[in-house]
Amino acid sequence: MDLPHGKLNPVTVSIIKMITGDDEITIERKYQSPQTIHSNMRFLFGSNYPVTLPKESDEDSFWERMIIIPFLYSIPKEQADHEMLNKLLAEKDAIISYCLKAFHKVIKNNFIFSKCSAADEMKAQWRNIKQDLTYTLEEFFSERVNVTGNPEDDVYAQPLYYEYQNYCKEQNYDYISYNQMIEWVDLNLSSECKRKRIHHTGSNPRSGFIGLKLITNKQ
Length: 219
Known about the structure:
7 strands; Arc Repressor Mutant, subunit A; 219 residues; two-stranded antiparallel sheet; 3-stranded antiparallel beta sheet
């Protein structure tokens, strides 16, 4: 399963801890009565992003259950081996044999994996990372804002930020500051929209953007 870019919400963290912690959980099967079991299932996730938790869920009990397998090196596209799958399939018997030998060592070690300094450092960084929240703006603009480039379209900066805040609350996201939003728009959309003082008839000039239009049509 892929992990999303962003903080896991408290409910998700609680469910993961419950399912992996030998707690009693109720399961339902089709056409059968609910059953209570002790669960110690394990999840396998893949992600290009760090795991980040809300402060109220950041506990040792969560992190101690996490085994990180770091992939530290990427292969440039021009060096990609397009026959890799066939090569791995040709060696599948040897690969499975190697994995079984390693698994036997894990069993003898009471299912405790060997220490990996790269994984330990990665986990420590994740627990202290200041989350990059710019992805929330990318999602907001893709779903709630039309970047038209049309000088007839404009939106005031403050209402735009309020819409962004409301979107983040709907999605259970943290959000960046007003000034950070302004900087992001200036940096990423300057070729399509311009920041300037907007003066509509009957109102005072206010900071805003030319070339943007809220999909909600709220201004």
